[in-house]
Write a structure and sequence with these properties.
This protein is of the alpha/beta class and 339 residues long. Helices cover 35% and strands 19% of the residues.
C-alpha cells in the first residue's frame, strides 16, 4: 500500500482536508503531520482519517530526510501555505500543494517551482502560479466548500432565545461585536451572543472585559447567560446550526478571513467584514446568492442584523452540496494522478 504524507498547520487545515482523507484512506496509508501544538489533542481523536499522526519534524535537511525515509512516503501533500523550505526542498517524494492561494513575492515564486502539482482555490491563483513556471497547476476550487466535520451533540438550551454567533474572532473584533450587541439588545431582548475566538487561549481574557452582561465560558456554562465564550475546540461548526445569524471573524481586522461557508452550510445568513483577502472567492459566492452580507463596523452590523431578524432584508438559505461534490472529485482525481 502506497503511503501519502499529508501535512497541515493546525485544526482548521485538517478540517479542510478531512473530506479527501476520508476517501484516500480506503486505498492508501495516510501519515498526518501537524505544526501547531494546540492541535495535538484534537487530531489525536481523529484516527479514522489517518494511520499515523506525528508532529512535523524540525525543518532541517537531516531531520526531514530521516522522517521521510522512516515513513516511506510516495507523495507529500501540503495544505494551503505550510511552505517550510527544507520540508519542500529536501524531500524526494513527489509534492502537491492543495487549496493553494498566491500572495506573491520572491520566496513564493521560488518555492512553488518545487511542487510537481499545485491545485488552487481560484482561477486567479492558477494564473499567478503558472506565471511562476510551476510544472503543473490545476484550479479545482476551494476545499472549504466541502464540510464533513463530525456532527456533535451539543448541550445548548436555546429555548425561545435568538442566537448571534461570532466565530473565529480575533483581537479587535470582539469590541466591535459587543458594541453592536449592546445596541441590538435594546430591540431584541431575547438575543444572546456566542463568541468563538480563533485562539481559545483568549477566552478568559475576553470574558474578563465583559462587565455589562451575564457572561460564561462554554466549559463552565452557567444558566441565564447573555454572552457565552467558546473555550473548546471542534464545536464551532456544529454550533452554527443553532444560529439565527452568524458573523465570521478575521474580516474586521487585517487577517483576511476564515471559512465563511460554515454557517451557510447550515442555511444561516453570514456576516463578514471588508478584510476578505484570503476568502474573497467565498465572499463573492455568498454575495452573489444573497446569502452573505458585508458589514464595515458596529453600526453597519446593527443595521444588517436588525433588517434580517425583522424580515426587512430577505436572504437565501443555500445548498452548496453540488458544488462541493464537483470540487471533491477534482482534487481526488488530480492527487491520484501523481501516484
Amino acid at each position: 500500500m502506497k503511503t501519502l504524507w499529508f501535512h497541515t498547520a493546525s485544526v482548521g487545515e485538517f478540517n479542510t482536508v478531512r473530506p479527501l482523507l476520508k476517501e484516500l484512506i480506503k486505498d492508501y496509508r495516510i501519515v498526518l503531520t501537524y505544526f501547531s501544538p494546540r492541535a495535538k489533542d484534537y487530531l489525536s481523536k481523529q484516527s479514522a482519517y489517518y494511520h499515523a499522526l506525528e508532529r512535523l519534524p524540525l525543518d532541517t535537511p537531516f531531520t526531514v530526510r530521516r522522517f521521510e525515509k522512516r515513513i516511506s512516503a510516495q507523495l507529500l501533500v501540503i495544505v494551503e501555505r505550510e511552505l517550510w523550505p527544507f520540508l519542500i526542498c529536501s524531500t524526494k517524494a513527489k509534492k502537491v500543494l492543495i487549496n493553494a492561494y498566491a500572495k506573491g513575492g520572491t520566496y513564493e515564486r521560488f518555492i512553488s517551482r518545487r511542487f510537481d502539482l499545485i491545485i488552487t482555490k481560484t482561477q486567479k491563483d492558477k494564473e499567478r502560479f503558472e506565471s511562476y513556471r510551476v510544472k503543473k497547476v490545476v484550479n479545482c476550487g476551494n476545499l472549504k466548500f466541502i464540510m464533513e466535520v463530525p456532527r456533535k451533540q451539543l448541550n445548548i438550551n436555546k429555548g425561545s432565545s435568538k442566537f448571534f454567533i461570532a466565530g473565529s474572532t480575533h483581537k479587535g473584533e470582539e469590541e466591535i461585536i459587543l458594541e453592536a450587541f449592546r445596541e441590538l439588545k435594546k430591540t431584541f431582548p431575547e438575543l444572546k451572543l456566542i463568541i468563538a475566538p480563533r485562539h481559545i487561549s483568549r477566552a478568559k481574557e475576553i470574558m474578563e472585559r465583559i462587565k455589562d452582561f451575564r457572561c460564561s465560558l462554554r466549559t463552565t456554562q452557567e444558566e441565564n447567560w447573555d454572552v457565552l465564550i467558546l473555550d473548546t475546540l471542534g464545536e464551532l461548526f456544529e454550533l452554527y446550526s443553532f444560529a439565527d445569524i452568524a458573523f465570521v471573524g478575521g474580516t474586521l481586522v487585517k487577517v483576511g478571513g476564515h471559512n465563511l461557508l460554515e454557517p451557510a452550510y447550515h442555511g444561516k445568513p453570514v456576516l463578514f467584514g471588508p478584510h476578505i483577502e484570503k476568502t474573497k472567492d467565498m465572499a463573492d459566492y455568498l454575495l452573489e446568492r444573497n446569502a452573505g452580507f458585508l458589514v464595515k463596523d458596529s453600526k453597519d452590523m446593527v443595521r444588517t442584523v436588525k433588517d434580517i431578524l425583522t424580515g426587512i432584508r430577505l436572504w437565501n438559505a443555500l445548498d452548496i452540496k453540488e458544488e462541493a461534490e464537483r470540487i471533491r472529485e477534482c482534487y481526488l482525481r488530480n492527487i491520484k494522478s501523481m501516484l
